[in-house]
Amino acid sequence: MENSTLSFYFNLTMFMNIGHHRYPAFVFCLLLYVFIVSANLVIILVISRERTLHEPMYMFIAFLSFNSLYGSTVFFPRFLMDLLSDTHLISRSACFTQIYVIYTYASYEVTILGIMAYDRYVAVCHPLHYHRKMSRKTVYTLAFFAWVFPACNLTVSTIVIVRLPLCGNNIHKVYCASWNIVKISCFTTSVNNVIAMLGAISMAFLPFSFILYTYLRIVIACWMNSSEIKGKVLHSCFPHIISFVTYSITSFIDTALGRQNLKEINPFVAVILSLEFVVIPPVLNPLVYGLKLPEIRRHIFRMLCGKTPN
Questions:
Q1: Who contacts 289 (Cβ-Cβ below 8 Å, separation ≥6)?
Q2: What does the alpha-carbon distance between residue 134 and residue 129 come to, in Å, rounded to a whole number?
Q3: Is there a domain that residue 8 lies in?
Q4: Is residue 14 part of a domain?
Q5: Residue-number span of the structural domain to which 234 is assigned
Q6: What is the pLDDT of residues 143-153, one digit of tens each?
Q7: Mean pLDDT, to the nearest integer, of 43-47?
Q8: Among 16, 127, 257, 272, which one is least packed by beta carbons within 10 Å?
Q9: Would you state the pLDDT for residue 3?
Q10: DSSP 219
Q11: How far apart are CA 12 and CA 237, in angstroms?
């Protein structure tokens, strides 16, 4: 423990590999951030304004958009400043705040997708009891646990990470991540792996297993039905499937990337792969739900253009 140093600042070393490409990268990321904020705000406004969209499925979509705003608003401003800065030091308090927000954003995403999967399961497998099982009280209860459980879980996890004794301050990433802090701690690798495994089980494995189970039940329920019914079910579930697959792939890439030696990977590829986790879902979700679902698409066109598309 005598060799451990209490670092008041962390150094985000991956920015050093961006070089003179920082200016076009800044413009592109700024436009991307503006699009994320605008698109998700439109989704939230449309669903909140239109009483016909005050149904569980659309309310959960609004939760997804709100979560995208939550994660992006904390990540992008700091990231954009770092792109133009020559130094990339971040204070301990700012770093751990960023860890908490980014990982609560990720946890909220998967818990919201989980209750959306349950909503689709009830709609397909118990259509006659849908309004009873997905009452307003049930929706609020599911939303409460979808927000509160990850917050409590991440609060405990962040406190554990904050108390780790550190033997370095270089984080090879463009934002603070819990595994990078664990890697520069003075604990042995076996202890680090146990901490990471417990976090992964509580934050990812259980919600992912529940989502896969609900869709297995949906597939079984539709297996013996007509192609017309299968088509309606697929049309209803397709946007959610895209969101779930996108989140699964980007989170897997982020997890796998954290276990690799990034110095052996092309720096631009490493930066792009590390950003997918916090960029692609907030960009893709409003496009998928806003364009694919006709009810939302119709009201968006009416709000923006003053008319309904054919």
A1: 43, 61, 64, 239, 296
A2: 8
A3: no
A4: no
A5: 22-305
A6: 999 899 889 88
A7: 93
A8: 127
A9: 41
A10: H
A11: 40
